[in-house]
């Protein structure tokens, strides 16, 4: 097996259990909660660490932003031995009960992206593996993290449906952009992000296991009801605590899956 072109990993460089953040800058921080870790590759948006967590071989590879680069990562990781994927990242929220800092665990994704459609028609469901989903919920409970379980919207355009650069959000916020989000709220969709739909779809197609979770960093509809506006260019709020939550819950989730597989 030749070294994979984009992620620059050979067979043996990747553990069967893989965390998938988008941001390359988060990989080292996530790996820091493991018992041991080493950087094995860096190329383009793809940074990879491999290590050990509670005796389990574990990897973490960044995917970059969006479905297209995520699909490349999953394709190449699967070729060098990855079997269980967990998407870990940040998201916006549509439901009022979701507070900043809450964890949203994805049982499914509404496929508003274009990449997953190149693999399967929209009728094909993007759903989490049941074992991974239960392991994720258990990890959040065990670590005392406030969480919600439900559907995410995976889409391609972070700034789509927003006014042109430099324009005011005030009038636009009250028009079609907000109505689109209200529709998603009425459909009980919890989150908005850009990668989970691809992760869940591809793993399901190939008979692999996958799940996803994200920490909510902004409520898209209830961010500032007094002003009735939301501006993604300045309202996103991330912190070291967010990455720590993703690292600990993500690693514990994969360990729960690992334990169950060892017992079978």
Write the layout of secondary structure elements.
Elements: E1 17-20, H1 27-31, E2 36-43, E3 46-53, E4 56-61, H2 67-79, E5 84-93, E6 103-112, E7 126-127, H3 130-142, E8 147-155, H4 170-173, H5 176-186, E9 191-193, H6 196-206, E10 209-219, H7 240-263
Parallel strand pairs: 1-4, 1-5, 5-10, 6-8, 8-9
Antiparallel strand pairs: 2-3, 3-4, 5-9, 6-7, 6-10
In words, what does this structure look like?
This protein has 264 residues and is an alpha/beta fold. The chain has a domain at 89-263: Nucleoside phosphorylase domain (Rossmann fold). It has helices at residues 27-31, 67-79, 130-142, 170-173, 176-186, 196-206, 240-263; strands at 17-20, 36-43, 46-53, 56-61, 84-93, 103-112, 126-127, 147-155, 191-193, 209-219. A hairpin with a 2-residue loop joins strand 2 (36-43) and strand 3. Helix 2 packs parallel to helix 6 (196-206) and helix 3 (130-142) packs across helix 7. The protein is globular.
Approximate strand percentage: 25-35%
CATH topology of the domain at 89-263: Rossmann fold
**What's the main sheet like?**
5 strands, mixed, barrel
Order of helices and strands: EHEEEHEEEHEHHEHEH
Helix content: 25-40%
Shape: globular
CATH architecture of the domain at 89-263: 3-Layer(aba) Sandwich
